[in-house]
Records
---
Amino acid sequence: METALHQLVVQVEKALDQQEIALGIFLDIEGAFNNTSYDSMCAALVRHGVDHTIVRWVRAILEGRQATVTLGSLSRSVAVSRGCPQGGVLSPLLWCLVVD
């Protein structure tokens, strides 16, 4: 079974091989991961039938995060109030559920 991305790559390669024009458009929603509210992510989980216990667990993960910045010997931490944690598999899933 081919994925949508694989199908796209095949079409672009075919166009280039036949010396045709291939046009691609990519949408970058600035700040999408950083500005998504916890309520919208949890509501999306509920909408998609995720068990209430899992929704509470995800909310606890989201609300329990802190961001820390260090410059030399100075360090500052703040509680994060919105956004998906980045660098894991949960963030893309949450974002996809929100925009679905």
---
Amino acid sequence: MASVILRDVTKRYGDNAPVITGIDLEVREREFMVLVGPSGCGKSTLLRMVAGLEEITSGTISIGDRVVNEVPPKDRDIAMVFQSYALYPHMNVRENLEFGLRLRKVPRPEIDRLVGEAARVLGLEEFLGRRPKELSGGQRQRVALGRAIVRKPAVFLFDEPLSNLDAKLRVQMRAEIKKLQHRLQVTSIYVTHDQVEAMTMGHRIAILDKGKLQQVGAPLEVYERPQNLFVANFIGTPPMNFVRASVADGGTALRAKGFVLPAPGGAREALARREGTEVVVGIRPEAVVEASRQTRGATAALELTADLVETLGDEVVVHGRLGEDVIAFKMDPHHPPEIGEKISARVELDRIHLFDARTEQRIVD
């Protein structure tokens, strides 16, 4: 097993602006790290640089105690699973699993042992004689995983391996990958654009945007303490509500267009120094509840008008208009409001997030 350490890693193509800028990231030994962000944020490029498939422009990448900037991919002791299964169509499952081992001239008894072990772990034993076209999408992805497992690498690299699967199979496969990593205890870096995958799979997640690292932390930490507006908006389903407001009354009130919220008690000292300045108030849908429900801590009343109602089965998401702003929150699916209906709700003040409107950075930890 090995850690993966990136120090001030930058990637630039020609004279163009960098696609990766000054990334500092440490993936601990045996850790499952997820790189997540929107399309084009640089996460796959970063993974390919760790794999050696892309040259870095500056900085260093270390696997274990060795800097691998100049080390070719085959000598980095990594195994990569791609979005495409990349299986050889003319070979059966056994031949696909053992192909890399045969190229490395591994003795036949050892090949049989490693392939048998991987097939058993992944539930592929009954499919060893089949060719890829005779397998389902999930079975093909397990073969691709098996091909990585048999190499016994120091690091697994996953580049959006579930993107080609349907929704139900994705849920099943992400559970299998997580259990597999827990069983094998191999340091793993997993790339996805899906924040649900990131939250459910990673020990920690690293959020990227426009080639820059925005925040690194455990899923719950990132959810509860987003460090900037991008992270706050990207993590969470439904996404966080944002309301622009000015600091008033010596930091005790947040004045938006059409309504006023009391400032959270823990933020008032910091807000007192920002009298009259504009902030962005972040409100998770989970922090807004119907007025009849019991809550803990201080709350503030919200009188909303239902603008949109989305039925999701076990809950409905209501988009309620409040002045010029719209607040999304969840309600009991058995008693959804009608469009235009007035709703009395309450917001839990201690769960409000505050961001500087100019820098977009979190104000209070």
